[in-house]
Amino acid sequence: MTQDELKQAVARAAIDIITPKLAKDSVIGVGTGSTANHFIDMLADLKARFDGAVASSEATAERLKKHGIPVYDLNSVSSLEFYIDGADEANDHLELIKGGGAALTREKIVAAVAKTFICIADESKRVDLLGAFPLPVEVIPMARSHVARQIVKLGGDPVYREGVVTDNGNVILDVHNLTINNAIELERDLNQVVGVVTNGLFAHRPADILLLGTQNGVETVD
Ligand code: 5RP
């Protein structure tokens, strides 16, 4: 199977998990990226069976709306049963690196609200040690140089993602060459740098279920 077919397979597996749990008043959190897009396209077939969705990016909101799925502001929703999203890296503790699509902050917010976070990814995203994928950090624009200097002190090599402005009007620094032995600690330390909005480590709130698309079928890690 191609990488895209593996992404489709995990999106289908997530649909299979949530379908029996859907109710007329269910609102679902939906992530961003090519794997999440497959999930959205499959979710459209079920739209009569749930109320709507909360989107983790403007791109996802647009795709949901195109399918006729109502999109709610997170502030108008009291709970989310599920959040379904992809990842750039995932380890066996279900800690993730996310933000390749620059949507990390809204993704982290929606994941924080959801009762169950189902991460869907093809097998290329599975790692023993997080950090080969450069860690995205969303930064308030005026703090970019300050944050970059602090990241160097923490042992990383920050690279400004040229031409990218997040949905929140901020910029992204991609941090190379980090050895992430303790993802919870690094997530906290980076978030304490003034000017950082958040970073792409999902360790304090890891996924609850990881669906990995492999050549031998979809593997569930939980
Ligand atoms: C976007 C993300 C995505 O989930 C991540 O980049 C994976 O994307 P894809 O499903 O296209 O491989 O974190 O900010």
UniProtKB/TrEMBL annotation:
According to UniProt, this protein's pathway is: Carbohydrate degradation; pentose phosphate pathway; D-ribose 5-phosphate from D-ribulose 5-phosphate (non-oxidative stage): step 1/1
Catalytic residues identified in the record? 107
Q: Name one Pfam family in it.
A: Rib_5-P_isom_A
| Superkingdom of origin | Bacteria
Q: Which organism is it from?
A: Marinobacter halodurans
Q: What is its EC number?
A: 5.3.1.6
* Reactions it catalyzes: aldehydo-D-ribose 5-phosphate = D-ribulose 5-phosphate
Q: Which UniProt keywords apply?
A: Isomerase
Q: Which HAMAP family match?
A: Rib_5P_isom_A
Record protein name field = Ribose-5-phosphate isomerase A
Residues folding into a coiled coil are none
Q: Kindly state the subunit structure of this protein.
A: Homodimer.
Q: What does this protein do?
A: Catalyzes the reversible conversion of ribose-5-phosphate to ribulose 5-phosphate.
Q: What residue range is the signal peptide?
A: none
UniProt keyword Flavoprotein, yes or no: no
Top-tier EC class = isomerase
Q: Where does substrate bind?
A: 32-35, 85-88, 98-101, 125
Q: Which family is this protein grouped under?
A: Belongs to the ribose 5-phosphate isomerase family.
Q: Which InterPro entries match?
A: NagB/RpiA_transferase-like, Ribose5P_isomerase_typA_subgr, Ribose5P_isomerase_type_A
Question: Could you cite one Gene Ontology molecular function of this protein?
Answer: ribose-5-phosphate isomerase activity
